Structure formats: structure tokens, C-alpha cells
Amino acid sequence: MKITTQSEKQTLNLGKKIAKQLKGGEVIGLIGELGAGKTVFIKGLAQGLNIKKTITSPTFVLMKVYPVKSCEAGSPTAKFNRVNPINNLRQRRICLGRKQSTINNFIHVDAYRLKSAQDLIDIGIKDYLSKKTAVTVIEWADQVKNILPKNRILVKIKMGRNPNQRIFEINNQYGKSVRVQRT
Ligand SMILES: Nc1ncnc2c1ncn2[C@@H]1O[C@H](COP(=O)(O)OP(=O)(O)OP(=O)(O)O)[C@@H](O)[C@H]1O
Ligand SMILES: [Mg+2]
Fold first, then answer.
1. Which residues pair with 183 in a beta bridge?
2. Which residue blocks in 30-147 are alpha helix, DSSP H?
3. Which long-range contacts (CB under 8 A, 24 or more apart) does 112-118 make?
4. What does the pLDDT look like over 28-68, one tens digit per residue?
């Protein structure tokens, strides 16, 4: 699936929309040169999972772990402060619509400065890669290809003809229902 974005905002939105399709357990590898938009896309994913903390590039710490409120992840219809019609009590938060997601953690890895995948293994990446309650995103995934699970999702980002154009190639069904300009 190829999707072209024409601005940083469109890339953020692409990430947001794809986040709504995540169920937990996904490993998403991003491949693209410096400034391709990997971090922007990841910020969009985080926004889609309702992570309020600012996503910054973890270049110097290798890996950042963000908590995800399971009620909100993948649940675009999560409603706040709704009155429960049965007991008339105001509920702080309930999930409507889609089944409650089980994503508890969002893991952001930047492998750019990595010397060996072993460094990631040493800090426990493998636990996250196999966790059904985590979504792991890896910038410069081509540096650590050998530790990615077979069912990883690869997102390749290429520069387009215009300075603000980026071409996303996603190797699975995510993005199918996403409406931004396609190539
Ligand atoms: N369509 C677009 N999508 C995403 N970013 C865009 C787009 N057009 C322009 N940009 C700009 O490109 C830059 C992308 O930066 P970003 O940090 O996301 O890249 P990166 O791939 O993470 O780079 P690095 O390898 O250094 O981490 C930003 O400055 C952003 O404003
Ligand atoms: Mg980056």
C-alpha cells in the first residue's frame, strides 16, 4: 500500500488513523533517511493512542516506554463523564463501540546510533517485541532487521518530488482504509 502525504500534518494524521487499527502486539519498523518523517509518523501513532506526553526522539536513550490507557487505545468513541443510566452515577470514563483495546505500552526505539542489536536485547527489547499488550515502533529498523519478528509491519518512507512530499509504503493492510492522497 502506497500513500503520499503532502505535509507534516498529513503524516501526523496518517499515523493517527493507523493507530486506531492497532490491536496490540504489533511491531512497526520504520525505514527512511534522515528527516524522512519517521518521528512525525510516530507522533501521529501516539496521538492516535491518546498518549498526551510529547514524543521526542529517543536517540540518546535508545528506547522510551509510554503508558497507554487501555480504555482509550483503539477506541475512538471513548466518552468521558457519561452518566450511567442504570445507577445514575457519573462515570469517569467508559469505552463505547469497539472492544476495549489491550494496549498498555507504546515503545519507541531509535536504532540510528546503535552499534549492535545486542544493545537493544540487553535492555529488554525482546520482552516488548513479543508482548500482546505493547506496540513497538522502531526508527532505522533496517539496522536491527534480525531481531524483528516475522510478522513485523514495515513502513518505508521516501522523499517525494516536492520538499513536503513523502511517500509511505506499508507492507500490510494498515492504511487500506486511510484516506489521504494515494499514488
Ligand atoms: N509530508 C511530510 N511528512 C512528514 N514530515 C515532513 C513532511 N514534509 C516536511 N516534513 C518535515 O520533515 C521533517 C521530518 O522530521 P522527522 O524528525 O520526523 O524525521 P526522521 O525520519 O525521524 O529523521 P531522523 O532520522 O533524523 O530521526 C520535519 O522537519 C517535518 O516538518
Ligand atoms: Mg526521528
1. none
2. 38-48, 117-122, 125-129
3. 112/59, 112/139, 112/140, 112/143, 113/59, 113/60, 113/62, 114/62, 114/140, 114/143, 114/144, 117/143, 117/144, 117/146, 117/147
4. 999 999 999 999 999 999 999 999 888 887 667 789 999 99
Q: What is the pTM of this model?
A: 0.84
With a 6 A CB cut-off, is 59 part of the ligand 1 pocket?
A: no
Show the domains of the chain with their CATH numbers.
2-170 (3.40.50.300)
DSSP element (H, E) containing 12: helix 8-19
Among all bound ligands, the one having the nearest atom to the CA of 43 is 1
Q: Is 5 in the pocket of ligand 1 (CB under 6 A)?
A: yes
